[in-house]
Amino acid sequence: MLTSRAVAAIIGALLLAASPGADAQGQPGGSGNQQRPTFRSSAQLVEVDAIVLDKRGNFITGLKPEDLTITENGKRQTIQQFYLVTYDPGRAAGPEGGTIVSPYADQADYRGHRVFVILFDEGSLSTDGLMRMKMGAEAFIHDQMGAEDAAGVMVNGELFKGKLTNDKGLLLSAIRAARPALDTRDSLLAPFREWPRINTETEAQRISEGAREETAALAAAACREDPGQCQGVGGQGDVENRIQQKARQYVSQARQLTEQTLQSIQLVSRSLEGIAGRKTLILLTEGFYVEDFRNILSKVAAQAARAGVTIYSIDGRGRVNTLSINPDVLHQSRARSTAFDTGDDGPNMLTAGTGGFMVHGIDDMSLGFGRIVNDTSTYYVMAYQPANTNWDGKIRKIEVHANVAGATVRARKSYAATKLPPQQAIWSVSK
Fold this sequence. Notes:
This protein is an alpha/beta fold. It has a domain at 186-251. The protein contains eleven helices and 17 strands.
């Protein structure tokens, strides 16, 4: 569990560790005389990043403000800023690297740099899943991270060295510091495979809340499966007690793991909210217990969205299948089933709520990183002053629609109505 001291230390230490390629002013390369971008205060504005695709899945360029419609809690909002951000290291860069391409660029605060935070959800990752994730993350740092990008790595619930950096050596050290947790979701689910069995974590949740009929049905099935063992433990009544104890223990421990995951995500959001523009959080996970946390997850996603954080997730389980009628918690083979498994619900709520997506079914995790890097490198930014100026912290729903035939839009779905601190460009953060 993160202490308030740890949170304060990370937020206070979130400074850019400049690599040898950065000058004394924090500018990558150059003499330090390049003009820094200026940022208008956006604390009173709501920014929405949008990926707009055609029927073939290709990004649509050349859109204007009138081509998109934003509503907040069902009421249409006036778009006050609108521009396209695209990152292409092969093109001529602006004063901060990257490029703005838009006839409305003069309305925009510059957002040229990419910011990534890689979060290892150790409590969910199996040993083989963690190894795949580490290999993919290292490949991302080596091959896909640009010289003008900044990144950080969350390991063990803390931002490694308390810094965002473009120092690839430091980032690789952070990735290599990730270690398997003593208790993981898979190890907590392992007793479900043992007699008397519980079929799913959803079933365990219902039993922990006192679902007597469900408990009795499982106990009866266990006694039919092994009558001798049933009698040896004292009969069906004692088997029911064992099932209840097993379910309650799992739910209690799984809640703790989920709380740790959500605390880490909230910490990232709070730490990044003062940095201008889009920030990308890559959640490396195999899913987590979600039954008691759906409302909290909606709040965490809304807080991240307000901070300008887009969450993506990569499933560390590698190739899975959906053919078996049994949940993957009952099978230890590599190609595990995801049928009846609610572990994906949490990552899905976080990614969909902030405008990101989930990556499933790959063994080469560098491909997952590649999809995310590509997605977060070109997007539209729209900003509006909400008609409701009461910053009361409540969640407000956002919908973005394209007024272009055949176009689809992916964008954040809500935000928490809170004021933001003054915004800084990432390369303007002091060393």
